[in-house]
Amino acid sequence: MSEKLINKGIRPDGRKLDEIRPLKIKAGVVDRADGSAYVEFGTTKVISAVYGPKKVHPRHMENSKKAILKVRYNMIPFSVYDRKRPGYDKRSVEIAKVVSEALENVIFLEEFPKSAIDIDMEIIQADAGTRVAAITAASVALADAGIPMRGLISSVAAGRVEGNIVLDLTKEEEDASDAIDLPVAMLARTGEITLLQMDGDASVDEIEKIVRMTEKGCKDIEKIQGKALIEKYNANTA
Amino acid sequence: MSEKLINKGIRPDGRKLDEIRPLKIKAGVVDRADGSAYVEFGTTKVISAVYGPKKVHPRHMENSKKAILKVRYNMIPFSVYDRKRPGYDKRSVEIAKVVSEALENVIFLEEFPKSAIDIDMEIIQADAGTRVAAITAASVALADAGIPMRGLISSVAAGRVEGNIVLDLTKEEEDASDAIDLPVAMLARTGEITLLQMDGDASVDEIEKIVRMTEKGCKDIEKIQGKALIEKYNANTA
Amino acid sequence: MSEKLINKGIRPDGRKLDEIRPLKIKAGVVDRADGSAYVEFGTTKVISAVYGPKKVHPRHMENSKKAILKVRYNMIPFSVYDRKRPGYDKRSVEIAKVVSEALENVIFLEEFPKSAIDIDMEIIQADAGTRVAAITAASVALADAGIPMRGLISSVAAGRVEGNIVLDLTKEEEDASDAIDLPVAMLARTGEITLLQMDGDASVDEIEKIVRMTEKGCKDIEKIQGKALIEKYNANTA
Amino acid sequence: MTAKLTKDYIVNQIKRNIRGDDRKLDEMRELTIERGVSANAEGSARVKLGKTEVIAGIKMDLAEPYPDSQDKGVLTSSAEFLPLAAPEFEAGRPGEVEVELGRVVDRGIREAEVIDFKKLCIVEGEKVWRVFMDIVVINHDGNLMDASGLAAMAAILDAKMPTIDKDYKIDYNKREKPLPLTTIALPITVMKCGNKLIIDTTADEEEAIDTRLTVTTNESGNISSMQKGGPGGFTVEEIVEICKIAGKKTDELIKKHFKSKKN
Amino acid sequence: MTAKLTKDYIVNQIKRNIRGDDRKLDEMRELTIERGVSANAEGSARVKLGKTEVIAGIKMDLAEPYPDSQDKGVLTSSAEFLPLAAPEFEAGRPGEVEVELGRVVDRGIREAEVIDFKKLCIVEGEKVWRVFMDIVVINHDGNLMDASGLAAMAAILDAKMPTIDKDYKIDYNKREKPLPLTTIALPITVMKCGNKLIIDTTADEEEAIDTRLTVTTNESGNISSMQKGGPGGFTVEEIVEICKIAGKKTDELIKKHFKSKKN
Amino acid sequence: MTAKLTKDYIVNQIKRNIRGDDRKLDEMRELTIERGVSANAEGSARVKLGKTEVIAGIKMDLAEPYPDSQDKGVLTSSAEFLPLAAPEFEAGRPGEVEVELGRVVDRGIREAEVIDFKKLCIVEGEKVWRVFMDIVVINHDGNLMDASGLAAMAAILDAKMPTIDKDYKIDYNKREKPLPLTTIALPITVMKCGNKLIIDTTADEEEAIDTRLTVTTNESGNISSMQKGGPGGFTVEEIVEICKIAGKKTDELIKKHFKSKKN
Question: Which of C86, C182, E113, F51 counts the highest number of beta carbons within 10 A?
Answer without folding.
Answer: C182
